[in-house]
Amino acid sequence: MSKRFVFVFSLSGNVEAVRATLPAHVDYWTRADVGYASGRFADRSGGLLSFRASDLAAADALVAGDPFVLRGLVRDRWTAEWARPEPRARAAG
User: Fold this and answer.
1) How far apart are CA 17 and CA 52, in angstroms?
2) Per-residue pLDDT tens for 34-91?
3) Residues 51/36, Cβ–Cβ less than 8 Å
4) Are 8 and 82 contacting, i.e. CB atoms less than 8 angstroms apart?
5) SS3 state of residue 44
6) 21, 38 contact by CB (below 8 A)
7) Matching CATH number, 3-81, of 3.90.550.10, 3.40.1380.20, 3.30.450.180, 3.30.70.1060
8) Which ranges of 10-82 does DSSP label H, i.e. alpha helix?
């Protein structure tokens, strides 16, 4: 059974390199077929990516292959299992 993980990262200040690498980053996660969802921070300093993996080691291996990581564009990163809350029952009425 797969678990859900988050990859939180800050980017280097090299805007042109990040912009040039973005298509490879999106393609990598799309082809990985891990049900990813992602977005950048409003200030464009980094982003958050959520995806499925069997365990933390597999999640770390996926993150290590991200073109942003491989090209040295990630300043700081953090990967952790995401314990999604269970949906709450709606109150009657």
Assistant:
1) 27
2) 999 999 999 999 999 999 999 999 999 999 999 999 999 999 999 999 987 655 666 6
3) yes
4) no
5) coil
6) no
7) 3.30.70.1060
8) 15-32, 56-64, 67-70
